[in-house]
Specification:
Distance between the termini: 46 Å
Structural class: alpha+beta
Number of strands: 16
Oligomer: single chain
CATH topology of the largest domain: BirA Bifunctional Protein, domain 2
Helix content: 25-40%
Strand order of the largest sheet: 1-5-6-11-10-9-7-8
Number of helices: 15
Strand content: 15-25%
CATH class of the largest domain: Alpha Beta
CATH superfamily of the largest domain: Bira Bifunctional Protein, Domain 2
Largest sheet: 8 strands, mixed
Number of domains: 2
Shape: elongated
Radius of gyration: 27 Å
CATH architecture of the largest domain: 2-Layer Sandwich
């Protein structure tokens, strides 16, 4: 490789060819299914005031302390490239004055996110997510519907086989307080066996220990108490209703009491779609209920629930399933002689106006233009010569079958649609 050849920054990648086709298929499919469920698409800035993420992700989280791209702009303001999408959506709800009146708001989003971490397959420093949020709905039916929509997207992509929905409850505030006390008692008895980081978490936020990836912590977590012994009657009824609605939507699931969210504004439902087809990076889609997040942005108390999914991971599942979408095959318009050039342009635009992909080689004789048609895997070739033009006709060649017929120019769009 030439020493001066520029490469994309570490942890980023170009989306070209089949990579882009899979990427686009994920977004396009998710956008289409989200519309069926009544979600409107929002787009928020790629960078935000740093406080947006400090408030929402927690000052002690790995994302805030280790992974955010934060810098001071020329005006002296601290800004951060967004590491996730939910915070910006909640900020937009508040700053645009949408917390009153037309609630709930059902929002879909898609776009790039940024985290400074060790790049690996399926995890980049610039990565992309789709996500959806229901803002202003406290009912368990909204939890089940956003999960059902995520499952529907995976099913429509054809990647649901081998992917399992795991659900848990984080309970209401009394449930969480009782559970936190139980975790403190349990982990305090094993404090010296915890990793140094989890020893700090024990004092600040013990539920975060349950998220630890350290082997010594995982061994202790396996025997830690679960929240189900500490649920209030109301919290248990909420979780039972979510499970009942999921069954009503036809979404298969299993209960996993180890799924947690460490911040206080999370409550009730937490869930993940997981698979073994991606190795260690097995979470495809994850989310839950976050009733205090909008309030932390300066808005009124606003219940909310949502999820996010990595586009790269869904695209990897598409590739593993052999489901890379094929681009539409073009019609090659081939003029023969100078007189046919003008007519060829009219034919091109007529086909494109009819929604048909049409291309023309910019130069060359019949042979070279046919070679170009073969290189782009065109389905048909429309050959325009002087003799055909005098009759208002063209030769339509089926490049797969090797057959050819004469057809009126006016009939081409209908014939090729």
């Amino acid at each position: 490789m030439a020493p001066n050849l520029l490469q994309p920054p570490r942890g980023t990648h170009d989306l070209i060819g089949e990579d882009f086709a899979r990427h686009h298929a994920v977004i396009d499919t998710a956008r289409r299914i989200a519309r069926l469920y009544g979600f409107a698409e929002w787009a928020t800035p790629i960078f935000e005031d740093t406080r947006v993420f400090g408030r929402t992700l927690g000052d002690t989280s790995d994302v805030v302390t280790k992974e955010m791209y934060t810098f001071e702009d020329r005006g002296g303001e601290s800004v951060t490239l967004r590491p996730e999408g939910t915070a910006g959506i909640c900020r937009a709800l508040v700053s645009n004055g949408l917390t009153q009146g037309m609630l709930p708001r059902k929002v879909f989003y898609a776009g790039p996110m940024f985290r400074y971490e060790r790049p690996q397959k399926g995890r980049q420093r610039q990565f992309h997510q789709i996500g959806m949020e229901v803002l202003g709905a406290a009912e368990p039916l909204s939890d089940a519907e956003v999960i059902a929509c995520g499952w529907h997207i995976q099913r429509e992509l054809g990647v649901d086989e081998g992917t399992v929905l795991e659900v848990n409850t984080l309970g209401d505030t009394p449930s969480r307080e009782a559970y936190r006390a139980a975790l403190v008692a349990y982990f305090s008895a094993h404090r010296e066996a915890l990793s140094p980081e989890s020893q700090v978490r024990l004092d600040k936020n013990p539920m975060r220990i349950l998220d630890s990836k350290e082997a010594q912590d995982r061994a202790l977590v396996a025997d830690a108490p679960t929240i189900f012994a500490h649920l209030t009657d109301e919290a248990r009824a909420f979780f039972d209703a979510v499970c009942s609605y999921l069954t009503g939507f036809g979404v298969p699931f299993r209960i996993n009491p180890r799924i947690v969210r460490g911040l206080d504004y999370y409550s009730h439902t937490a869930f993940e779609f997981v698979t073994e087809r991606l190795g260690a990076q097995g979470t495809v889609m994850a989310g839950g209920r976050y009733n205090g997040l909008v309030e932390s942005m300066g808005g009124p108390p606003t219940p909310a629930v949502g999820w996010a999914a990595g586009i790269e991971r869904l695209a990897m599942l598409l590739e593993a399933s052999g489901r890379t979408p094929a681009p539409p095959r073009a019609v090659a318009v081939i003029p023969v002689g100078d007189a046919a050039e003008g007519a060829a342009l009219e034919v091109l635009q007529a086909l494109r106006s009819a929604g048909i992909v049409a291309e023309i080689a910019y130069k060359g004789n019949l042979k070279r233009r046919m070679e170009r048609a073969n290189r782009i895997a065109a389905r048909y070739a429309v050959i325009l010569g002087d003799a055909e033009l005098t009759e208002g006709r063209a030769q339509l060649r089926d490049l797969d079958a090797g057959t050819q017929e004469s057809i009126l120019l006016a009939e081409l769009p209908a014939r090729l649609s």
